């Protein structure tokens, strides 16, 4: 059998890893050195040369997108389909195990997944039921605490509060929340992992079965595994299994969420036969980009240390753009992308990366204005939208009446006269009886424990859900969805709302029907009801609709979600002190290093050209702030940078910004405006000119609008009229 194609396009070190006899191994290597490529070839090698069945391999990646890509690449290499191979994220794989063994996992068959928002609501409810003050016990913090404990594998009974009253309350909230989830058949994200671990740990026969089955486990992006994920891998690999992990300590960016880069060292202790392979040649970026990224990351202490080199082209310098403000930054980026497109390149090949989701709005507006199609990863995902969650909540209740999170969500949506008081009665009854809300409602109705109007309303709701369940029983999934959207009154409710937002919501509800129509249950979901399979998919998948995957669009995403990806053209926006590194992290050395790693991840996404932008002034939470360039820019040697100025003046060294107001009044006149002048703007209305900066085309005025507040506007675009 000719297997040479499995080693084609690999260097000597990569080949050694791919073609090694089954073993445990650590591949520790920097960005763009081919770790993911090696993993893909390794899987194909194990199947073709070692004759392993796709059944015997378990591959773990970081996102659903990466998992789908890995599957596709393996299939292309092998020329055959590997549908039955378990390739997925930790969460997806844990979910698959729990579905297959729900009884052993002590879960109801129709258990549902709580996403972060559902979890927050649930925790809120628990805190209220415990008569605690939400201000003193913020639900968000409680979620954080609960997930943190679960990530460490800790149940309430494992935690000692050491008689600290504060710790005791947190623990009480955790316990009560978990009881509520168990009762309602709900599983949050952290619970998926913890329960899957317990499932194997506590069921000898299952553990043996899976250990024998998955003799070879491969993990990408290992540096970002947390305690429970690693414990799960270790359990599954057992003493006989082969675990191959690939990772880069310099790209560990989820420490804030419990990921432990120390797991790399732990792995070497736990798997003493594993050797370490380093890959040092980068195939992704130009020498300039790579050297700049290497220089940046060398500012971190305590690295495992690697040398990364390339024999690729030197490439263009990194372009640094100092924008006036965030609008100017966005406009600049849109302009460059337009140029890129005009030069005959694909929009898909351009990515804009930012530190926080909040930055995307201004960028989106600029792209819209420039008529450049774009696509956002992460952000508000389709399945997280209000109207979609409403519709899903009805579907969830149809599948599982005890789903308290779904019950709370739609009991009064659309409004049917079930107010806070009635809900309060239901909640406290549920608490007293140790029952779910649905059960509480039934028992209160039976005991006539609700007053006339409220009783009628609650009765109506229960009957509605029952009736929806009856009518959709044998229908295909998309017809079920359509019936529920209409039968619940959701469609009518959103149709009756006015405005663009409501229109979008109606569109989205229709889109949900299409999504269910196009839904193909994954292989592992064959035993599940299509409805349950779809609901799990909605909770677990990124929810970025796959359909527009092939559209040519600029890619927008946070730096975190760019991990593992690569693009010919990359923009990093908002590279300013207080933004990146973020305010909080710049005060803590550990977190500052994590921010620096994030910057390293961002820079190393770029293949040909990297732009780093920062604004001198930025509106944050409605307030104008003066911003300084990020320290990370200073950590990149000047020889790799090129400062961009508007009107394509290029200055090779960082320039000192002139005092922005020093020159104002002289040029001010040319715009015909003066300080204190009353002006009118087509969108913002009337206002007073407060300030002025810049020259010629770039000149801007600050206007305090009577209604819209203070804004900086570029005179050339603002269409201001003197009054
Ligand atoms: P990251 O740390 O960012 O996840 P990585 O180490 O996983 O990066 P890959 O994404 O596997 O790196 O590879 C980076 C790029 O280099 C890809 O485009 C890949 O196809 C290419 N590449 C990897 N190895 C080789 C090689 N031996 N010859 C040519 N190209 C290669
Ligand atoms: Mg990779």
UniProtKB/TrEMBL annotation:
Residues 287-564 form the UvrD-like helicase C-terminal domain. Gene3D superfamilies: 1.10.10.160, P-loop containing nucleotide triphosphate hydrolases, PCRA, domain 4. Keywords: ATP-binding, DNA damage, DNA repair, DNA-binding, Helicase, Hydrolase, Isomerase, Nucleotide-binding. Residues 8-286 form the UvrD-like helicase ATP-binding domain. GO terms for molecular function: 3'-5' DNA helicase activity; ATP binding; ATP hydrolysis activity; DNA binding. One of its GO terms (cellular component) is DNA helicase complex. It catalyses: ATP + H2O = ADP + phosphate + H(+); Couples ATP hydrolysis with the unwinding of duplex DNA by translocating in the 3'-5' direction. It comes from the Bacteria. Pfam families: PcrA_UvrD_tudor, UvrD-helicase, UvrD_C. ATP binds at residues 29-36. Coiled coil: none annotated. GO terms for biological process: DNA replication; recombinational repair. Its EC number is 5.6.2.4. Belongs to the helicase family. UvrD subfamily. This is DNA 3'-5' helicase.
């Amino acid at each position: 059998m000719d297997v040479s194609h499995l080693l084609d396009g690999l260097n000597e070190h990569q080949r050694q890893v791919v073609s090694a006899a089954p073993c445990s191994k650590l591949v520790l290597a920097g960005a763009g050195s081919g770790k993911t490529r090696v993993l893909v070839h390794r899987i194909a090698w194990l199947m073709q040369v070692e004759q392993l069945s796709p059944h015997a391999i378990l591959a773990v990646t970081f996102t659903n997108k990466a998992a789908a890509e890995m599957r596709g690449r393996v299939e292309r290499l092998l020329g055959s389909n590997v549908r039955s191979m378990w390739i997925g994220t930790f969460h997806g794989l844990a979910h698959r195990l729990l579905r297959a063994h729900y009884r052993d996992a002590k879960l109801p068959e129709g258990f549902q997944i709580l996403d972060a928002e559902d979890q927050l609501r649930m925790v809120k409810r628990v805190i209220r039921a415990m008569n605690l003050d939400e201000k003193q016990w913020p639900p968000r913090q409680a979620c954080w605490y609960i997930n943190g404990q679960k990530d460490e594998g800790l149940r309430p009974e494992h935690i000692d509060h050491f008689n600290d009253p504060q710790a005791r309350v947190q623990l009480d909230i955790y316990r009560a929340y978990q009881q509520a989830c168990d009762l309602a058949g709900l599983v949050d994200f952290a619970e998926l992992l913890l329960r899957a671990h317990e499932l194997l740990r506590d069921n000898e026969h299952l553990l043996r079965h899976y250990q024998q089955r998955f003799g070879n486990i491969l993990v990408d992006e290992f540096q970002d595994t947390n305690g429970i994920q690693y414990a799960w891998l270790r359990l599954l690999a057992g003493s006989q299994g082969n675990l191959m992990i690939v990772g880069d300590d310099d790209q560990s960016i989820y420490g804030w969420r419990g990921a432990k880069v120390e797991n790399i060292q732990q792995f070497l202790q736990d798997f003493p036969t594993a050797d370490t392979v380093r890959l040092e040649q980068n195939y992704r970026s130009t020498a300039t980009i790579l050297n700049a990224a290497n220089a940046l990351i060398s500012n971190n202490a305590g690295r495992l240390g690697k040398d990364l080199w390339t024999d690729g082209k030197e490439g263009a310098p990194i372009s640094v753009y100092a924008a006036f403000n965030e609008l100017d930054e966005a406009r600049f980026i849109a302009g460059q992308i337009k140029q890129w497109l005009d030069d005959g390149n694909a929009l898909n090949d351009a990515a804009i990366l930012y530190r926080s989701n909040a930055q995307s709005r201004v960028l989106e507006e600029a792209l819209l204005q420039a008529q450049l199609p774009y696509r956002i990863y992460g952000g508000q995902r389709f399945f997280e939208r209000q109207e979609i969650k409403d519709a899903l909540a009805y579907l969830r209740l149809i599948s599982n009446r005890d789903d308290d999170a779904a019950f709370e969500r739609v009991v009064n949506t659309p409004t049917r006269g079930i107010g806070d008081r009635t809900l309060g009665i239901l909640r406290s009854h549920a608490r007293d009886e140790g029952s779910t809300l649905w059960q509480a409602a039934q028992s209160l109705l039976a005991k006539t424990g609700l007053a006339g109007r409220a009783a009628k309303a609650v009765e109506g709701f229960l009957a509605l859900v029952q009736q929806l369940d009856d009518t959709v029983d044998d229908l295909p999934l998309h017809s079920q969805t359509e019936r529920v959207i209409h039968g619940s009154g959701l469609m009518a409710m959103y149709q009756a709302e006015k405005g663009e937002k409501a229109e979008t919501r109606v569109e989205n509800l229709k889109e949900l029907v299409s999504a269910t129509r196009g839904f193909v249950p994954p292989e592992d979901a064959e035993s599940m009801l299509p409805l349950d399979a779809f609901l799990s998919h909605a909770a677990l998948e990124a929810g970025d609709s796959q359909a527009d995957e092939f559209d040519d669009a600029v890619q927008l995403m946070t730096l975190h979600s760019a991990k593992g990806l690569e693009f010919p053209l990359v923009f990093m926006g908002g590279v300013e002190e207080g933004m990146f590194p973020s305010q909080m992290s710049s005060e803590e050395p550990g977190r500052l290093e994590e921010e620096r790693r994030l910057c390293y991840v961002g820079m190393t996404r770029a293949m040909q050209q990297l732009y780093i932008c920062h604004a001198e002034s930025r509106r944050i939470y409605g307030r104008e702030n003066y911003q300084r360039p990020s320290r990370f820019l200073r950590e990149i040697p000047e020889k790799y940078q090129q400062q961009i100025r508007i009107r394509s003046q290029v200055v090779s060294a960082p320039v000192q910004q002139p005092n922005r107001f020093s020159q104002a009044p002289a040029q001010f006149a040319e715009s015909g405006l003066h300080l204190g002048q009353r002006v009118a703007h087509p969108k913002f209305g009337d206002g007073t000119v407060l300030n002025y900066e810049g020259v010629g085309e770039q000149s801007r005025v600050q206007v305090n609008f009577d209604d819209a507040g203070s804004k900086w506007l570029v005179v050339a675009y603002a269409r201001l009229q003197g009054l």
